[in-house]
Design a protein that fits this description.
Radius of gyration of chain A: 17 Å
Number of helices of chain A: 10
Mean pLDDT of chain A: 85
Low-confidence stretches of chain A: 59-79
Helix content of chain A: 55-70%
Strand order of the largest sheet of chain A: 2-3-1-4-5
Largest interface: A-B, 20 and 20 residues
Strand content of chain A: 5-15%
Number of strands of chain A: 5
Structural class of chain A: alpha/beta
Shape of chain A: globular
Distance between the termini of chain A: 13 Å
Oligomer: homodimer
Order of helices and strands of chain A: EHEHHHHHEHEHHEH
């Protein structure tokens, strides 16, 4: 069975960079935005719209995986809330694509609940996080030149993105995003150089 | 400044073994029960009694580090609760010993809030955990022959020990035991061989 590495990450923690470098070091494919692009292709929705659905979903009353026991309530809810239906359709498409990717070869997949979607393949599940100060510093380094958030604004921005990621993950998996028990390794990037840790991490595989 | 590695661990997760092997691999001293023995020597209390005070402390209303702002309430509480005073005296002694240890040489220290006590020395803080099934399996492997816990009883036993560890840590540090943000690396030992991961981990230092 192919060796799959999944990476969950807080915004600004460097998880994407860690995933990309780890895939490079291991000489295996790396998937991130490619998945959104593939969903857009298959659903004929614009990529930006798919991204928006994935990232901006609101918390709803019944997570779909629990709601199976509450079929009537869910049916009613879906019938009255097309956004849920759309988000659910996109999640199903995403799951299908992620399973196809895992079927093809060893790989690194960033985000998108891949740890949960592929759980029967026992992926190696990494979660990357850092303290707020370091995440803010990293965001400023990578921000476009015309982006000028104040400190408070940037902190709020980071917290909002992570809140959405958590809500998306918790909703679709019934697990808690960032809870160590759902990962094999949790790496705090506050005090480390991602470039230096990647060759060591790679030896795990 | 000496390189200090601290290890927090769930009961049955293999954290102690990981710490011991890591110290061996790095050729540096390893401290665990030695600290309790040293407290016992210095306070002239029996080692088993010191252990009991450390492990069996109950949650109290005001953590001491917060209670500084509530001096009167704390004074009253300590005056009426000699156990708190004793536990606090032992924690102070323990902190002193841990600082002396860190002063001497590079080392690995297991448990005892060492990550918090030595925070100004920027220790590398590892937390080791596993799922309940694996922790139960490990406990059975290492249990004395005459110990015959049923499954439910063993699970309860493990949960109680971790509850005490959490309460001791949270009380003395004002941080949350096992919360990733308080550690540099959290390692799930459910699916891995501790002997195999140690040489890789050692490369971090």
């Amino acid at each position: 069975m192919n060796k799959i590495i999944t990476i969950g990450r807080q915004f600004g923690s460097g998880g994407r960079e860690l995933g990309r470098l780890l895939a490079e070091e291991l000489g295996i494919p790396y998937y991130d935005q490619e998945i959104v692009r593939e969903i857009a292709d298959r659903t004929l929705m614009p990529e930006s719209y798919v991204q928006q659905i994935i990232e901006q979903r609101k918390i709803v009353a019944f997570p779909l995986h629990i709601a199976k026991s509450f079929q009537l309530a869910t049916d009613l809810q879906i019938a009255t809330n097309p956004k849920i239906e759309e988000s659910s359709a996109i999640f199903n498409q995403q799951s299908k694509i992620i399973r196809e990717i895992a079927e093809k070869s060893d790989c690194v997949i960033v985000g998108r609940c891949a740890d949960y979607i592929l759980k029967e393949r026992n992926p190696y599940r990494i979660f990357v996080y850092a303290d707020m100060e370091k995440k803010m510093k990293r965001c400023r380094e990578y921000a476009p030149e015309n982006e000028n958030f104040g400190d408070k604004e940037l902190e709020k921005h980071i917290m909002e993105i992570d809140k959405r990621r958590a809500s998306y993950y918790n909703f679709h998996t019934g697990q808690k995003w960032g809870d160590p028990i759902n990962y094999d390794l949790c790496i705090n990037t506050t005090n480390l150089s991602i470039k230096e840790i990647v060759p060591i991490l790679a030896k795990l595989f």
